[in-house]
Amino acid sequence: MDLYQEEILEHYHEPHNSGKLSNPTHERCANNPTCGDKICVTVLIIDSIINDINFEGEGCAISQASASMITDEVKGKEVFYAQSLTRDDIIEMLGIEIGIGRIRCALLGIETIQKALEFGKIKK
Question: Mind listing the pLDDT tens digit for each residue in 39-64?
């Protein structure tokens, strides 16, 4: 359990895929109004593959670490894979018990990514 907690803190303090892509094909922002967490994702899709993905955000360690871990997980994979990730997949990825009050924090990243893939296409 301590190993997972250390990994979450590492992703929180030094998030992977942090920032905004300069040439995204999809983007979306979302927030968790109950605690103030916010995530914005930019995604570059080429031939149904998530070629690149970045996020910017603010909020608790769980929401930010989860977004960092999820972007690592979906980068280089088919869009369908990212769209198929579930709540249970994210909880397993985090590797810690998530209380009812924190589940929305943990899921904010994947929900934002999935909405970006479905509704966040950038018109050129």
Answer: 999 999 999 999 999 999 999 999 99
